[in-house]
Amino acid sequence: MNKYQKRPVVIEAIQYDDNPETDIELQEKFGIDPVRLSYKNPDDPILIIETLEGEMKAYVGDYIIKGVHGEIYPCKPDIFYETYQKVD
Fold first, then answer.
1. DSSP 60-85
2. Which pTM does this prediction carry?
3. Which has the closest alpha carbon to 86: 21, 30, 16, 10?
4. Phi, psi of 68 (to 5 degrees)
5. What tens digit of pLDDT does each residue of 1-47 get?
6. If DSSP codes are grouped into helix, strand and coil, which group holds residue 8?
7. Which residues contact 27 (CB under 8 A, 6 or more apart)?
8. pLDDT tens digits for 50-70?
9. Is 32 helix (H, G, I), strand (E, B) or coil?
C-alpha cells in the first residue's frame, strides 16, 4: 500500500457566529448570495449552504471554507483545527 501526504494548500475561512457582519462577509468575500439562515430553533440558528453535493448545514462555531477552486463548504471546528493552521 502506498502512503500519501496532503499538499499544503491555503484556503479562506470564516467562523460562523450568526452575526450580521459575518453574513455580509459571506456575501462579499465568499459570494454566498443570498445568505440563507434557518431560525426554526431560535437558540440554534443554521446557515444553509448550496454545494455541488447539495445543501449543507453549518451551525454556530462551524467554519465556512472557500476552497482552492472557489467551492464553499462547512467544516466542524475540531476537524478544522486538525487540518489547518493560520498563515499570515
1. TT-EEEE-TTS-EEEE-HHHHHHH--
2. 0.88
3. 10
4. -65, -20
5. 999 888 888 999 999 999 999 999 999 999 998 999 999 999 999 99
6. coil
7. 33, 34, 35
8. 888 899 999 999 999 999 899
9. coil
